[in-house]
Design goal:
Number of strands: 9
Number of domains: 2
Strand order of the largest sheet: 1-2-3-4-5-6
Oligomer: single chain
CATH topology of the largest domain: Heat Shock Protein 90
Structural class: alpha+beta
Order of helices and strands: HEEHEEEEHHHEEEH
Number of helices: 6
Strand content: 15-25%
CATH architecture of the largest domain: 2-Layer Sandwich
CATH class of the largest domain: Alpha Beta
C-alpha cells in the first residue's frame, strides 16, 4: 500500500509544538542565568569551629629525643573558659615508673598532677601530662635503653619537677630529665610547662609577647648581663653571645615566675658543660612594653 504524503499544514501542526518547547527552554535558561547573576550571594560561615569541651595540651607524638612540644608555637585547641576558684589548685607528686624485666633499664619520671576539684581542667591536664611522659619513657626504652651493656650497667632515665608558679589562674613547671645511659656522661635536659588554668590550655610564646621577633631581640639584649651576674668568672662572652642570639631555638625553655620570665638554657648552650643548666629571670617590668596587655600573663606582669 502506498502511504499518503502529509500536507504542509499537517507537518506544520506537528512541528510547531516542538519549536515552542525549544524556544521556551532557551528562554528559561536565559532567565535563570540572569537571576543567578543578579541575586544577592548567600553568606558562607568561614569562622572557627565551635571550641572543644576538652583542652588538648600536647601533640600526640614526639620525635625521638625531642621536646614535649614547641612552646613557641600555639599547640592547643581553643576551649571554653571556666570559672576559677579563689585559691590555687592542689598538686601532688605523681610518677611514671617502669622497669625492664631483664634489669637493663629503669625509668622513674616525677610530674605534677592536679587534684580533681581544685581546678576546672584537672583531669584533662593530668591525663595529657601522663601520656606525654609515657611517650618519653617509651622513646628511651626503645632507643638508648635498648643497648644492653656487657658490663651489666643499668640504663636509667629519671625526672623531677620544680613548681615555678601556682595561682588560681596560672601554673608553671620546669621538668628536668636525666639520662644516664652513657657511662661517664650524664645528659640532662629540661622542659617547661605553662598553663592557663581558666582554659586548661598551654600558654605559648605568642600569648605572652605581641611580636615574637621583637621579643627575641629584647631578650638577646638583656640576657648577657644577666648571665654575667649569674655565672661570674665562668662567664664566656663569645659562648654566651652565640647561645642567646635572637632565634627561637635559644629561648625554648621558658617558665613563668612571680619575679619575671625565666629562661633555662641547655647544657653547653651559654657556658661550659660543667655549669649545668644556667637560667636567668627577665623582670616583668623590663618586658612589659612588648607584652600582650590582655594576654593570660598580663595580670602577672602588672597590667
Amino acid at each position: 500500500m502506498r502511504l499518503r504524503k502529509k500536507s504542509f499544514g499537517e507537518r506544520a501542526r506537528e512541528t510547531v509544538p516542538v519549536f515552542v518547547i525549544v524556544v521556551m527552554g532557551i528562554a528559561g535558561v536565559f532567565v535563570a542565568m540572569n537571576v543567578l547573576v543578579t541575586a544577592v550571594p548567600t553568606a558562607i560561615d568561614n569562622g572557627s569551629p565551635s571550641p572543644s569541651t576538652r583542652p588538648v595540651l600536647f601533640a600526640s607524638g614526639l620525635p625521638t629525643g625531642g621536646p614535649f612540644v614547641d612552646p613557641t608555637e600555639a599547640t592547643s585547641t581553643p576551649g571554653p573558659t571556666a570559672s576559677l576558684p579563689s585559691v590555687p589548685p592542689t598538686i601532688v607528686n605523681s610518677a611514671v615508673s617502669e622497669k625492664d624485666p631483664d634489669g637493663a633499664w629503669v625509668v622513674y619520671l616525677r610530674y605534677p598532677a592536679f587534684v580533681v576539684g581544685t581546678t576546672p581542667w584537672a583531669d584533662s591536664i593530668d591525663a595529657d601530662i601522663l601520656v606525654e611522659l609515657r611517650t618519653r619513657a617509651a622513646q628511651f626504652e626503645q632507643g638508648p635503653a635498648s643497648d644492653r651493656r656487657a658490663d651489666g650497667k643499668v640504663n636509667t632515665l629519671t625526672g623531677s619537677f620544680t613548681t615555678e608558679l601556682l595561682t588560681p589562674a596560672l601554673a608553671s613547671f620546669t621538668l628536668t630529665l636525666v639520662d644516664e645511659t652513657t657511662p661517664g656522661h650524664t645528659t640532662t635536659t629540661v622542659e617547661t610547662l605553662n598553663l592557663d588554668l581558666g582554659t586548661g590550655q598551654r600558654i605559648s610564646f605568642g600569648d605572652v609577647f605581641m611580636d615574637s621577633q621583637t621579643a627575641l631581640t629584647v631578650l638577646f639584649q638583656q640576657a648577657p648581663p644577666l648571665l654575667l651576674a649569674k655565672l661570674g668568672a665562668a662567664y664566656d662572652q663569645a659562648v654566651a653571645t652565640e647561645g642567646t642570639g635572637p632565634i627561637m631555638a635559644n629561648y625554648t625553655h621558658w617558665a613563668l615566675t612571680p619575679a619575671g620570665f625565666k629562661v633555662t638554657f641547655s647544657q653547653s648552650q651559654v657556658a661550659a658543660l660543667d655549669q649545668g643548666l644556667p637560667f636567668v629571670v627577665f623582670p616583668w617590668t623590663d618586658l612589659k612594653s612588648i607584652m600582650v596587655a590582655t594576654g593570660p600573663v598580663a595580670q602577672l606582669a602588672g597590667f
